[in-house]
Amino acid sequence: MQGEGLSTTSGAGQPTTGKISSEARYHAFMAATQEDDQPLRLDAFEARIKPVEEADRSLLHELTVSVFWPHRPHDIDLFISLGQGYLALDEIGRPLCSAMFFPMGEDFAMFGMMATTPRLQAQGAGRRLLRRIMQDCAGRDLRLSATSSGYRLYESAGFEPVATIWQQQGIARPISLPEAVPGLEWRALRQDDQDAIRRLDAHAYGATRTAVLDALFELATGAVVARGGEICGYALMRPFGKGVVIGPVVAEDDPMAMQLVAPLIQQCEGQFTRIDTPQQSQHFRAFLAAAGMGTFDTVTEMRIGPARRSTEGGLIYGLASHSLG
Ligand SMILES: CC(C)(COP(=O)(O)OP(=O)(O)OC[C@H]1O[C@@H](n2cnc3c(N)ncnc32)[C@H](O)[C@@H]1OP(=O)(O)O)[C@@H](O)C(=O)NCCC(=O)NCCS
Question: By alpha-carbon position, which residue is closest to atom 28 of ligand 1?
Fold first, then answer.
């Protein structure tokens, strides 16, 4: 599962660890397990580490609120249903730190929901829980969406920067539909589109995320575009955080992506709407900004293991979420 080669250039202008290879960083990080036999001390607290369970919704929600994430309890439920991980709690059960992973297929996992309560950050909790989930995921290729506060931690664990992910959001404005691409037909999502979407997604995403898509189909509305009757792009849309998130979105290029999502943005008019896009295209972002969804923030996609996303055919234009990719 080790990253191939050495890259010292960060996709988001982050500091890098110079000439130490990602593989050496991974081994040094994972070798520090003697630390993990000791109790986790954070300030005056001795933390207990336990697996995340269904009943932990409010504890995880409390942590996400403490780091100013917009997750609502129903968003936490989705992550708990799809992932595994750990929570560090103090002596009276207050949450101090969390880390989760979302296995997809046999050989891939996304990491997410990593948060330490602000006044206890930089004391080693994140490192301890990250190592636990990396042990659980041994043998899998790994990917995560790193915030600027998490970047150094993930880099020290052997993750390599891949690309910038743009968090576009705001109140959706009235827009007119872009000119339709010749030969491309837009229509609302139907139940019998699911198999075609699963195939398209596996190609674009680079892993089979059956459980994620099944869960999203339950929660989402959306649209597909078809060429000659064959589905070649899709977009899902569901309640998330302060409003609505449009994602995943798979399209072949900017015009297709715009044709796909424009009617969905129209349906969101006046509502808080978000798309997280890994596409570097300024054109697509300019279209989103004109629709009221300017750049709010960026995160850096990082990976251990080979690149997986497709670079031709259907491409990922929108993430399901930072934690799910
Ligand atoms: C990222 C995060 C989970 C790390 O947890 P933590 O318990 O602070 O981690 P550790 O104490 O093990 O620190 C690991 C490294 O991160 C650095 N770090 C911790 N908090 C930081 C912050 N707010 N800004 C910049 N660096 C930070 C530490 O200094 C340490 O680096 P070093 O070893 O070079 O000194 C925590 O900072 C956090 O909750 N941030 C806000 C939410 C977030 O962005 N989560 C990451 C999502 S990908």
Answer: 122
Measured in Å, residue 294 CA sits from the centre of ligand 1 at 27
The confidence score (pLDDT) of residue 8 equals 35
Q: Which ligand 1 atom minimizes the distance to the CA of 97?
A: 7
Minimum CA distance residue for ligand 1 atom 1 = 150
Is 71 a pocket residue for ligand 1 (Cβ < 6 Å)? no
pLDDT tens sequence across 217-261: 999 999 999 999 999 999 999 999 999 999 999 999 999 999 999
The closest-lying atom of ligand 1 relative to the alpha carbon of residue 116 is 39
pTM for the full predicted model: 0.92
C-beta of 147 in contact with ligand 1 (< 6 A): yes
60, 79, 102, 152: which to mutate for ligand 1, most atoms within 8 A of CB?
152
Between the CA of 152 and the centroid of ligand 1 the distance, in Å, is 7
The domains of the chain, with CATH numbers, are: 32-139 (3.40.630.30), 167-318 (3.40.630.90)
Q: How far is the CA of 307 from the centre of ligand 1 (A)?
A: 25
Q: Is the CB of 97 within 6 Å of ligand 1?
A: yes
CA distance 43 to 119: 9
What tens digit of pLDDT does each residue of 81-136 get? 999 999 999 999 999 999 999 999 999 999 999 999 999 999 999 999 999 999 99
